[in-house]
């Protein structure tokens, strides 16, 4: 019987190695290991053997089954790999085909508005500054004159990383792009004119708030800067962004730890067909926070507040996009719904320019 097992093993392994396709491999599996298979039949004979014969022949039969099973799996994997290689070689993409033959992508409204803002402020002499999204406590809070007791530092409003080994809280997801202003003032010498666009994170979620959103802040540090410079800059910016000359601003006294005095900026709107449209003064809508940079912030960055003054402002990019392009729910910005993107998205060739109109 030993000779018969060796011959069966040799024949089966040779047939498996020569199998030309997955169907042939499956047929060999059924022939060897199926209910009526050759090896299955040998396994059934073990019950009729004496203990001595079973002890001698059992390992040989089981070894034959394991060898054939491994050979079948290896040949199947090899054939599947060959089939995949052949399919990938056949599924080529002709890069010379006209672009009209494939679905067109679109630029997300947030990306478009970011470009519009950069274009407007570049014309006003502002550079674009960036910084890390994972910040430390000093840049995000302390240097901005935000006290330890301020609610913005609370766990329910800020995403903190786990404490350090010594128990101190060192890092967090930035809650605004103001740390970029601090880094710029520490690194560069005045005069400074920058905008700081980017993603920020706060623990909030509803129709007009999301845990991650986009913000743009502006900073000017120079000699002789006044609140009048701030108002003119914001007025010029909003007229260019909304592409209307009837933009009316209203500055309301407010409080921010990093500016003094501080002002909320409202823009006038009109009601057209039951909807609010920016422009006119039938009503007021808050769009910006702003103010003169606090002397303590200037001093924290190593500058003399008696020599240098400045103003800062900040607004949500997503909110500006909603106001300009008529979107109602901020959460749709992050849903990835292709129907929404096709409706509100922009062509890659819709490059904002002041001469052609930033909303072109």
UniProtKB/TrEMBL annotation:
Name of the top EC class for this enzyme: ligase
Domain of life: Bacteria
Signal sequence interval, chain numbering: none
InterPro entries reported in the protein's UniProt record: aa-tRNA-synth_II (IPR006195), aa-tRNA-synth_II/BPL/LPL (IPR045864), Phe-tRNA-synth_IIc_asu (IPR004529), Phe-tRNA_ligase_II_N (IPR004188), Phe_tRNA_ligase_alpha1_bac (IPR022911), Phenylalanyl-tRNA_Synthase (IPR002319), tRNA-bd_arm (IPR010978)
Tagged with keyword Membrane: no
Catalytic reaction equation(s): tRNA(Phe) + L-phenylalanine + ATP = L-phenylalanyl-tRNA(Phe) + AMP + diphosphate + H(+)
UniProt-listed CDD domains: PheRS_alpha_core
Listed Gene3D superfamilies: Bira Bifunctional Protein, Domain 2 (3.30.930.10)
Known cofactor(s): Mg(2+)
GO biological process: phenylalanyl-tRNA aminoacylation
Residues binding Mg(2+): 260
UniProt keyword annotations, A-Z: Aminoacyl-tRNA synthetase, ATP-binding, Cytoplasm, Ligase, Magnesium, Metal-binding, Nucleotide-binding, Protein biosynthesis
Note on how the cofactor is bound: Binds 2 magnesium ions per tetramer.
Domain Aminoacyl-transfer RNA synthetases class-II family profile: 111-352
Annotated GO CC locations: cytoplasm
Molecular function terms from GO: ATP binding; magnesium ion binding; phenylalanine-tRNA ligase activity; tRNA binding
E.C. number: 6.1.1.20
A Pfam family recorded for this sequence: Phe_tRNA-synt_N
Main localization (coarse): cytoplasm
Entry-linked PANTHER family: PHENYLALANINE--TRNA LIGASE, MITOCHONDRIAL, PHENYLALANYL-TRNA SYNTHETASE
Family classification: Belongs to the class-II aminoacyl-tRNA synthetase family. Phe-tRNA synthetase alpha subunit type 1 subfamily.
Subunit architecture: Tetramer of two alpha and two beta subunits.
Protein name from the UniProt record: Phenylalanine--tRNA ligase alpha subunit
Organism the protein comes from: Sphingomonas naasensis
